[in-house]
Amino acid sequence: MQETDIIFQCTRCGYCCHGETTVSLDEHDRERMCNALGMSSEKVAEKYWRITGNIVQMKVVDGHCIFYSEGCKVHTGRPWRCGEWPLHPSILDDENNFHTIAESCPGIKKELGYDKFCEILATILKKGKRIKC
Ligand code: SF4
Ligand code: SF4
User: Fold this and answer.
1) Is it the case that residue 131 has pLDDT exceeding 90?
2) Position 132 in a domain
3) I need a surface site. Which of 23, 38, 114, 116 has the fewest CB within 10 A?
């Protein structure tokens, strides 16, 4: 069992991909997404992005990210913030963040308790491991 599996197992509930906005994409996210889709940035922007000033987000369709369909359809090209969720470093700073994130993500194994959870999360983050959801 991997360390991430001890503290988190995605239930694929899709909650984190729903809402009226999505995470924003930085320059590297945009490039990675275009490469994953094999499309030019112009085409990807037209089809998938919502651009507001210099903020680039993914379009929202039917209350969820345009790439969501029983999972992420751009998994290898998803934004880094999507890859980071739900094992966010802010959990280590404040127990309230742990409870807030656990409330929105059923994959978080909150039964471990905050201290044990943080001990394992700190090890994972130190190794720079990304979450595979
Ligand atoms: S990361 Fe959490 S909220 Fe998102 S699909 Fe998995 S279990 Fe659901
Ligand atoms: S890019 Fe993928 S993981 Fe991120 S919000 Fe959209 S569907 Fe969810």
Assistant:
1) no
2) no
3) 38
